[in-house]
Design brief:
There is one protein chain. By secondary structure, the protein is mainly β. It has a domain at 3-44. Helices cover 8% and strands 24% of the residues. It is built from one helix and four strands, in the order αββββ. The strands form two sheets. A two-stranded antiparallel ribbon has the order 1-2. A two-stranded antiparallel sheet has the order 3-4. The longest helix has 6 residues, at 3-8.
Amino acid sequence: MSDQHKIRCHRGFDLRIWLNNEKNLTTNTCLCPPSFYGDMCQYQNQRVSLTIKFRVLSDSWSTLFAIIISLIDDSEKR
């Protein structure tokens, strides 16, 4: 893969799509990973994924859980 294609899609995969074989028409597009989006994967998603698994024993049905999650954004962009 050439350096030009690596730079074009940032962290994505550059894909060439044939639109018409007779006229040899093609277009390029980027396949972005889930954490990036945009025409060239130039924007980063700001998302948080959290998976929690609890194992509760049969003799502890009355156990209470307190979960506190705080998300802080220190940027001025909204």
